């Protein structure tokens, strides 16, 4: 019995020793795995100082300075329609012709009335002159001369009225030729040859090549920072390849119930492809901030601690909680947390943690 207990005790010590050896071996392997984790491959850049533009941004609309609608100014039947949608027209180019025959007849009748009145006036002047001589010879009473003089004045007033009617008729005859009031492109046409139109009936709609402006609404909070003459950068979906730079030429209050917003007016020069009624994205330069510290936007990442940038020192990533400002053109302003000249992680920053080992890849510095 004693011999059996001795054997079991020796086997127990052997098993315990092997267990300790295996445990120590496993710990060593874990440490080796930890030591074998590679450094994160990143690119870096220097925090820079730049002048940053302070912008007020909004979305507005484009409108024409001139009314793009062309309507009939006289009644009549449309004899010809000479313009089609999409057609480029010059200022003064003929677009349509309205029947002018009724107006021409009215002109002839008015001319005949003028000729009749001229004959009556010539005769009445002779009557007045004769009555004047008879009165001097005391053959007639003064009232006779007064009556003939009044008749002459009445005839002269009638002929002035007839001449005014003639001018109006001739002006209306000119309006039967519908012409483009400005250079542009025919956007739409409602005129149909043979149709009878009345005064005010729409015929065409033109898109002006020039004479456009943008109306830009801003909230009350932005009003103190806006002023006439400030630079405005504008883009529109109808011509994204043609951005326009202009200046505020007027500021108008938009006062309403619980609203003291302001509207900026910007005249658009050299704006090919821009159309009235289109939306416009606008950014007004309300100030400039010089000496601002900026880093690439990919350097700024979110962590539980907040918004952070990783500063690289001795191949280690040091987490810095930062306060950001204006972001523009791929760069972000750092108000606090990073100084100009410090090296920050760029590509790969999103994979870093504080004190992580890094390997810097050439090419971004």
From TrEMBL:
GO MF annotation, one: efflux transmembrane transporter activity
SUPFAM superfamilies found in the cross-reference section: HlyD-like secretion proteins
Species in which this protein is naturally found: Pelomicrobium methylotrophicum
Domain CusB-like beta-barrel per the UniProt entry, residue ranges: 218-282
Lineage: Bacteria, Pseudomonadati, Pseudomonadota, Hydrogenophilia, Hydrogenophilia incertae sedis
Domain of life: Bacteria
Assigned protein family: Belongs to the membrane fusion protein (MFP) (TC 8.A.1) family.
Coiled-coil ranges per UniProt: 145-172
Positions of the Multidrug resistance protein MdtA-like barrel-sandwich hybrid domain: 70-207
Name the record gives this protein: Efflux RND transporter periplasmic adaptor subunit
Key word Repeat present: no
UniProt cross-references to PANTHER family, sorted A to Z: HLYD FAMILY OF SECRETION PROTEINS, MULTIDRUG RESISTANCE PROTEIN MDTA
Domain YknX-like C-terminal permuted SH3-like, first and last residues per copy: 293-360
InterPro entries: Beta-barrel_RND_2, MdtA-like_BSH, RND_pump_MFP, YknX-like_C
Claim: Magnesium is one of the keywords in the record: no
Gene Ontology CC annotation, any one: efflux pump complex
Alphabetical list of Gene3D superfamilies matching this protein: 2.40.30.170, 2.40.420.20, 2.40.50.100, Helix hairpin bin
Keywords, comma-separated and alphabetical: Coiled coil
